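Hi,

Apologies if this is the wrong queue. I'm a grad student, and the batch job for GntR family transcriptional regulator from Rhizobium leguminosarum produced an output file that my downstream script rejects. I'm not sure whether the problem is my script or the file. Here is the sequence I used:
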Amino acid sequence: MSDESEVKRIRGTGWKNVYETLRNEILALTLPPGQLLDEMTLAERFDMSRSPVREALIRLGADELVVTLSNRSTIVAPIEVATFPKYVEALDIAQRMNTRLAAALRTEADLKIIAKRLKSFEAAVKTGNHLAMSEANKEFHMAIAHAGKNQYLASFYEKLLSQGQRMLHLHFEYLERTHEGYLLTDEHTLMLNAVRDKNVDLADELAHAHTRQFQDNFINFMRENYTTDVALGPLRAAE
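Support response: The file is valid. Your script probably expects a header line. Output copied below for reference.
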C-alpha cells in the first residue's frame, strides 16, 4: 500500500480507533466524569491529526458521553445524580414493557438468542471486567427487547441502557464488594425463564425488581462514597 493510500485510509477511518478507545475508557470510568478532553493532547496521544479526533468527539457527543462547553472545551459528560430518579423511572417503564412484550411474543429463535446472551453475560461476570459485564448486560436485555417485536420501545430502551452503563459500572462494584454478585446472573436467569414460559405478569415483576435492585445499589454506593443532598426516592411497587 502506498503512503498516499495509507493517509487516505487514516483520514477516512482513523476516528474509529479514537472513538472506541475513548468510549471504553469513559464507560469504564478510566476517564472520569468532568475530565477535560483536549483535541491537541488526544491528537498527540493517538499520533494523528486533530480532524479524526474531532470526529470521534462529535460521535461521543451524539452518544451523550461527552459535553462541549460554551468555551468549546470538551469534557467527559458528568453523571447527573440529580436527574437519576427520572432516569430510573424511565428505565423501569422501558424494561417492564419490553420484557412483558418478549414474554408474550417471543419465538423459539428468540429464546436461543436470549440464552446465548445470558451465557455471554455469565462468562463476563467471571472475568470481573466491569466494561465487559456492562456490554454483555446490555446485549442480554436488548435480546429480550428484540423478542418483544416493537422497534420503537426497543430503541428507547437501548438508549437508556447505554446512558446507564457508567452507573452500572458502580453498581457492579457495589455488588462485588458486598458479596452479592450472585444477583447479577440469577436475576437474568429468572427473567429468561419467565419469557420462556410466556408468563407476562412474572416477567413484568422481575423486570421491575431488576430495576429496583440497580437503583438501590447505585444509591447505596453513592451514599458510601460521596456526599449528596439529592433525594433519591424508591420506585413505586409494580402493579
